[in-house]
From TrEMBL:
PANTHER family: PROTON-COUPLED FOLATE TRANSPORTER (PTHR23507:SF2), ZGC:174356 (PTHR23507)
Alphabetic keyword roster: Cell membrane, Cytoplasm, Disulfide bond, Endosome, Folate-binding, Glycoprotein, Membrane, Symport, Transmembrane, Transmembrane helix, Transport
Membrane topology: Multi-pass membrane protein
Family that this chain belongs to: Belongs to the major facilitator superfamily. SLC46A family.
Gene3D superfamilies: MFS general substrate transporter like domains
Protein name: Proton-coupled folate transporter
InterPro entries linked: MFS, MFS_trans_sf
Subcellular location: Apical cell membrane; Basolateral cell membrane; Cytoplasm; Endosome membrane
Organism the protein comes from: Takifugu rubripes
Entry keyword Transport: yes
Length: 479
């Protein structure tokens, strides 16, 4: 390292992470062939490729595991109504209802096994990243997801009891699952963006989720149709390993790591509690105002994400069942159509920024989501189902605004704790959504397959009212 490089490094070290990385770009490593893992290899390389790779694996995992459970349970019960289409055309077939119910119950058990552990690990790991750096938890999350894929492959190839899937979910939950990866990615973007550009930068990350979902939907559907369920799981493992390699070799750090920072410390939970109890500020009138907004935005985020997860969990099962009876190809196309909303919402958000305040953008997303869910609840043909997907193309404008609003309410040194809190809320969303939606779906099959979608549409009226209240509150506060 020459003298000028040493001087630049000392200048960076003497500044806070926010001052150091306040621009939208990270400092590049010297152009050598032996860049250390702690530096970026290319100036424009950010966290987005790692997010896409990991979420492709997650997007493949969900539908493939549900279809494997369906086929495995069908074999165990000697149910052969799905040899060509995925279900029996006779909607009153009692054996088909048993297969649907058991599949939903296994999905619930597997989800609870992982996300109950991530409830403890996400706040711990996310807050730890404020002092230890973002890269360690990005690596840890990918390792946990890779171990889960390995366990699933063993179960499928050796036809082990389905209870062994719980082992994979436990290993994944101990590493924070992909919720901690999302927390690290959004914290990373908050580190390198300013308040003005943050909403759109967060929306780009949300769009990366859509791109990965589309890729996994198309690839998974076609591959499963041609080669069965097991082979595509090798791509799940490969994506996690590739994402970990990218983080290790190419991704720069945005936080100056503290070598003395301990992972297992109650201090990390206390920092989150301080953020939530004070709004990140002192307990004066301004702090109370911040705290109220923070909690209300958290509540809106919780309801919206719970509805989104509960619907996503049931789409594949709903499409496999009569009267739709979709096969792997249509399920893959449907998954791609569902994730296209991330891209269209990003474009819609960019256009709406020129003429609407952020609260109105959320309301547009709510109308799109409610309309789509109402169509899904009564969908009995493929055309109607895809109409619901088309109407829902703007429903992902809500979560980027919520994340950006929450990030702006926290201090730059609290971004990890903030997004760890958001990750914790999202883990709770998974538990609530998986428990309620799968149970409600199984309980209402006898009179209306889409009843869960109808309930979700009604539930979304609550955040609509909260956003209206917050908009009035902020207008009175900042006329």
């Amino acid at each position: 390292m020459n003298e000028s490089d040493t001087t630049s490094f000392l200048q960076l070290e003497s500044r806070t992470p926010k001052e150091t990385y306040g621009a939208a770009e990270l400092p590049a490593a010297p152009a050598t062939s032996s860049a250390s893992p702690g530096h970026t290899c290319v100036r424009w390389v950010t966290v987005e490729p790692a997010l896409v790779l990991t979420m492709v694996s997650v997007g493949l995992h969900g539908p493939l595991s549900t279809q494997y459970l369906w086929e495995r349970i069908s074999q165990d019960l000697s149910y052969n109504g799905s040899e060509t289409s995925g279900c029996s055309n006779d909607s009153s077939d009692p054996l088909q209802k048993v297969v649907e119910t058991m599949t939903a119950q296994w999905n619930l058990c597997i989800a609870v096994a992982g996300f109950s552990l991530s409830l403890l690990m996400v706040p711990l790991l996310g807050s730890w990243s404020d002092v230890a750096g973002r890269r360690p938890i990005l690596l840890l999350s990918n390792v946990g997801l890779a171990l889960q894929a390995v366990v699933y492959l063993f179960v499928m190839y050796l036809k082990l009891p389905m209870g062994y899937f719980l082992v994979g979910r436990v290993l994944c939950g101990l590493s924070g699952d992909y919720n901690v990866l999302l927390a690290a990615c959004f914290s990373y973007v908050a580190d390198i963006s300013d308040r003005r550009s943050r909403t759109f930068r967060v929306a780009i990350l949300e769009a990366c989720l859509g791109i990965s979902g589309m890729l996994s939907g198309i690839i998974g559907g076609e591959w499963k149709s041609a080669r069965g369920v097991i082979e595509p799981f090798w791509l799940v493992l490969a994506c996690n390993l590739a994402s970990a390699a990218y983080v290790y070799w190419c991704l720069g750090e945005t936080v100056l790591p503290d070598p003395s920072a301990r992972l297992f410390s109650f201090r990390h939970y206390k920092s989150i509690w301080h953020l939530l109890s004070t709004g990140g500020l002192s307990s004066n009138e301004r702090g109370r105002f911040h705290r109220r907004r923070l909690w209300l935005y958290m509540l809106c985020f919780f309801i919206v994400v719970t509805v989104h997860i509960s619907s996503t969990d049931l789409y594949v099962l709903y499409e496999l069942s009569s009267p739709l009876c979709w096969g792997p190809t249509l399920i893959g196309i449907g998954s791609a159509a569902q994730h296209l909303a991330y891209i269209t919402s990003l474009l819609g958000l960019k256009l709406m920024q020129h003429c609407l305040v952020e609260s109105w953008m959320v309301l547009v997303g709510l109308v799109s989501n409610i309309s789509g869910l109402l169509i899904f609840s009564f969908a009995n043909t493929t055309a109607v189902m895809f109409t619901g997907y088309a109407v829902s193309l703007l429903h992902m404008t809500m979560t980027p605004v919520f994340r950006s609003k929450l990030s702006q309410l926290a201090d730059p040194s609290q971004q990890g704790a903030l997004f760890a809190s958001v990750g914790f809320v999202k883990a709770v969303c998974f538990l609530v959504a998986s428990g309620v939606s799968n149970s409600l779906y199984a309980a209402t099959l006898h009179f209306m397959n889409g009843f869960t979608f109808l309930c979700s549409a009604i539930l979304l009226l609550i955040p609509g009212g909260i956003i209206g209240y917050l908009q009035c509150l902020e207008q009175r506060r900042d006329p």
